[in-house]
Every structure is written in structure tokens, then in C-alpha cells.
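Q: What would this chain look like folded?
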Amino acid sequence: MSKNSLMDMPDTCRITKVLEETPSVKTIVFEKEFSFKPGQFVMVWVPGLNEVPMSLSGANQITVKDVGKVTHILHSLKPGDFIGLRGPYGNGFSLNGKRILAVGGGFGTVPLKPLFGNKRIKKFIIGARSKLNLLWIDEIADVAVCTDDGSMGEKAFVTELADRELATGNYDLVISCGPEKMLKALFKVCEKYGVDVEFSLERLMKCGFGVCGHCAMDPIGWMVCKDGPVADSRILRQLTEFGNYKRDMSGRVVPL
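A: My prediction, written as C-alpha cells:
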């Protein structure tokens, strides 16, 4: 877990490279290298706008999807520009397994990228809506690919491929990140086979280290920023909110 405190101020980091991964996703590489555990995140500050949490896709990079005002500005940045970063925060993947299956859904592949090449991960399943939304599949040695529209790999959902893999009995842990409805469906598959999980969850965050409580999940007050963002099977079984609803910026319940 990060040892950062309330007194943290963003480090001003110069951008050295911007990589276009897909039409809506860019990787921003910066000078500073973070010591981090895969699954941890940083708070990214855009002067004059806001701070947003983002998973590290490498020691010196974040990968950004253009989905809103802040991320749109981040997409416009060039080498030589500066951003503010503080962190890393949260708890990452513990990888408490000897034979691990990793499952990435769309943009959820981002926090898994630092684990490419990890020898305990025996296989990756990467899925997306279409070929245009797949990330880094050519960088993974053993990968099964699926798309919703069949434009690359199998026309299937990641849960279908995971079910087939887990039926072999060859895995003792599944790690994953992706849309929460996907994670909930995947969790049910893993529970069916008695395989433990570590899933990276996403909620709106304001502070990043457990002070505001905005990302606390019902009914146990588990905070995604401080206690997560990675949750194991024991925690997920307790979270009635998981896969069912989230909260908007005002704290109002919004169905997933």
C-alpha cells in the first residue's frame, strides 16, 4: 500500500512520448518512474480542471481512454507537456496462486499490462467489443482473444472462454479487470469451479486515499481507493453493491 499522506502534492512530470493504442486510447509516457505493484493507481492532475484516478500501465506510463473532459484534455497533450501525478495508491494484485488465469475486458486490460510475461500467469484471455478495441494482444505469449462482433478471435464473451479454461482444473486463481457486469458474471463462473479471484474494481474517487469515503461500497464500507482497488473472493462475497449498482458524484445510487 502507498505510504502517501494528506500532505501529498502532485509531482510535475514531463511527458516524453504519446502512443496511440486505438482510436480512443492513448498511452502517455513520462519521465518519472514509480515503484508500484500492478493494480495500483495514481491520481492524475490536469491544471484548471480536476484530478482523476488512473491505473499505471507501466512504471512510467498511464493509458487513457477518451471518455470525458479531463481525459479529452489528456489526449491532446504532446511530448514536452507536463501533468501532475501523485501516488501510487491502493492495493494491487497479490498473485497468491501458482497457476493463474488473467482475464481482461476491453479497457480493463490496462492494469494487467505490467503482468505480461509473469511466469505464474499461464494464460491471458482478452476480450473487447471489436478488433479496434483490443489492447496489446501481440505482446502476450499465450493469449485467447474474443470479440463481441467476431471481428477478431472467437465471437464470444470472456466469461465463455474462462468457463472452458477453468473446466480443465488447471488454475488456482483468476485475476481480472473490466466492466463490472463482466466481472460479476466471471465471479459466478469462478465460484462454480471453486477458484479464488482477485478483481480490480472501479468507482468514482475524490481523494484517492480513503478520506472522503466517496468510493465506499455497501454494506461493509470497503473503500476502493484504500482497501482496493483489487478485491479477493472473500471481499466480493460481502459486497452487495458489486455488479448491481454504483454511486454518482452526488452519492446517488445508479444501476449498472
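The first strand starts at residue 11 and ends at 22.
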